[in-house]
Design brief:
150 residues; 2 domains
Length: 150
């Protein structure tokens, strides 16, 4: 039988986190149900690095790409936009509204190796893909080893 070290506060902290999430989810849904403007949302984002680029993919379904602002300022990438509520159906006729609407602003610190001047943005199937190439001096280089023959 293995000996397990008992940490009494570990379970207490995880229980507190669960209660906080439970109350926040429950009460925010209860109070925000009638007010669409009070809800906030942020598009989910993946950021990854390849050998030559830093790539950011943001899910923006229902957002007009013409109304999305992307800018780089002081080494930080800012993503700003808004998903508007469709007024095709009266709000009183809805049985459930689970999608979030409203404006969003996200910011991401960029490594100094990124060349923001050569950034490229594409929007396809509700996904915005930003490709930020690395500067030439930041790209990995292979150094050939010369052997000396006697």
């Amino acid at each position: 039988m293995a000996i397990v070290r008992w940490e009494p506060f570990r379970d207490l902290l995880s229980t507190q986190d669960r209660f906080n999430r439970l109350f926040n989810d429950t009460f925010s849904r209860f109070f925000d149900e009638g007010d669409l403007g009070a809800r906030t949302w942020a598009p989910p984002v993946d950021v990854y690095e390849t050998e030559h680029d830093v790539v950011l993919k943001a899910e923006l379904p229902g957002v007009d790409p013409k109304e999305v602002e992307v800018r780089v300022e002081d080494g930080t990438l800012y993503l700003k936009g808004e998903r508007k509520f469709e007024n095709e159906v009266k709000q009183d006729n809805y049985h459930r509204i689970e999608r979030a609407y409203g404006s969003f602003v996200r910011s991401f610190p960029l490594p100094s190796s990124v060349d923001a001047e050569k950034a490229n943005a594409q929007y396809k199937n509700g996904v915005l893909t930003l490709t930020l190439p690395k500067r030439e001096e930041a790209k990995p280089k292979t150094i050939k080893i010369n052997t000396a023959t006697a």
